[in-house]
Amino acid sequence: ITLPGAGSYSFISWLYFGGVAIALAVTVASVLKPIRVLINGTKVILNNRPVIIHPDIQPSSFLGILFIRSIDEDEIIIQHELVHIRQRHWIDLVLFELAAIVLWFNPVMYFYRRSLSIQHEYLADRQVTSAVPVVTYLNCLTRQVESGIQSSLTSRFNTQSIKQRISMIAERNKY
């Protein structure tokens, strides 16, 4: 027995699962570089946390592991990334990516991804500026912008939202 319009369901299923496959492939591709660096980088313990040192990766955190370019990385950047790790932002990112794979067709997911990333940065900024002078922190952010360094599943100190972050920090710390 065939149902009327069964062919259209088949097409929609193929379209949906094809989109899932593409979204999954994109997610896997975004995870490959951190995994390669995890395998090939120098492994050390810093502040009781696993740290991977590799010159080809931007300061970031991935699955609770800190990635830095060198042992001489700016301490403020390290503190910022450690906040991401302590607050377990990677769990949000993994759960979101799983949802984004299933809901690949929903344009709201792409806006939400950016919003989640910016929120994580604001939270880390707030935590670090409670222990580091705001001017020192803003200078560090400015140096990152001036360096021209451009960096889904990683939390990164360098994001395109640095200008927004600087404005937010300056506004919050006005007297």
Look at the helices and sheets and give the structural class: alpha+beta
Total number of β-strand segments? Answer: 5
Distance between the termini: 75 Å
How many helical elements?
Answer: 6
What is the beta-strand fraction?
5-15%
Strand order of the largest sheet: 1-2-4-3-5
Poorly predicted parts: none
Helix-strand pattern, N to C? HEEEEHHHHEH
Round the Cα radius of gyration to an integer and report it: 20 Å
**Oligomer type:** single chain
Shape: globular
Mean pLDDT: 84
For the biggest sheet, the summary is: 5 strands, mixed
Helical content class: 55-70%
Concise structural overview:
The chain is an alpha+beta fold and 175 residues long.
Which properties best describe this structure?
single chain, 175 residues, alpha+beta, five-stranded mixed sheet, 6 helices, 5 strands, 61% helix, globular
